[in-house]
Design goal:
The chain folds into 2 domains: 201 residues, no CATH class; 164 residues, Rossmann fold, CATH 3.40.50. The longest helix is centred in the first third of the chain and has 16 residues. It is an alpha/beta fold. The chain is globular, with a radius of gyration of 22 Å. The strands form 3 sheets. The protein has a 4-stranded parallel beta sheet. It has a 4-stranded parallel beta sheet with strand order 8-7-9-10. A two-stranded antiparallel sheet has the order 3-6. Helices cover 32% and strands 10% of the residues.
Amino acid sequence: MFLGGIVNFIRTTMPNSARRSHCPPLLSSRFADNQTAWRQQGRFLSYCSRGGGLGSWLRGLGSALAISILAERALILDGTCEQLPTAVSKYVAEYFQGNGFTWTAADGEGQRAQVERGGHGRTMTLSPVCRASVRPCGYNRTMVQGQLVADSTPLELHAGEHAMVDKIRDKASRARVVALFSGKRDSWLEIWDALHSCAFELLMQPTRRLTALTDAFISRHGVQRGVDGELLLVAIHARLGDGNMRADRSVIQANQGDVRWVSEQRPNAMRNSPLGALSCFSTMQPGSSYLLITDSSQAAECARRNGVITTRGDAVHLGAASQLKPMDIDKLMLDWWLLAVAQEAGRFGRQSNFLVSARWRHGEAQRQTRDFSRGCNRSAAFTVKCGTFEAKTED
């Protein structure tokens, strides 16, 4: 049992890492071992996102971590979801990996077949939504009374931005997870940021491919490192809306006249006053390279004209695209990782799933991300005018 003998599993040594771990000692020392053991026992939990995009998928990883522990099952993040096919699972394993363990369905010859045929063809679905075809209903019946823990029935977890760890409402389950993070109150809120930062540390380590992309980006733009080895990089996320992503590849057809995405109807400093928005970089950590991560080609061009670096490729939404170029997938994953490793990050407008999950990976609480919704006083460093950006519409 993972949580039944907490004291026996605590070790005095921290993982071999150059930076401080964001996980409590028990998870740092034993999570990988337990994942490997449960995999060998043929006990699996496949994570399926209820949203189609990368941000929503990332937002549900805290739930995946908690349910994996409570159900005592090895996580599969790139598996085939029977009831809820997830676009992210096609790509994620090329860029990310587990911290000392594998969460892929394919792990050597025949392993995928073992994962997908386990449990004698029966799969139990865990979901926060109560439907006639989905049982058990809600996370509140998640193995807290020994249900399914003793057998090897495969579990398929449906989670995401609207189905996070707070949906585990059973008091005993919540108490077990809260205790892992030394929470003093029986509340998800108290451990919210810590739990998610730990989940990303354990589940989202860069692969060789992502490391190569990062190194190439650093070399191309001359990004320096500090004495501690951390990148001297600050980033702002300018999300102007899904409509800014290339319409010719979108499976979301605007066949009902003029369509404007909800996020594009909200005020945004980058759209209304681009130079005032870019001036916010001057308020961030001095001596750093400036990076703008955006889904708008107009915003990216404006940034480059003013000496702010950006990433190559077109912004894509994995849940709204029928065909994707490898370069654009590279950009998506690199964008998220750069937001995660930046020393400081900011945003214009509402905080997106993409940004908040990246900053959790950095070890930062949600409220620490800089809010530049109102823009900033004009800085002499940004003078090349860009006009204003019209909200993208499709007809």
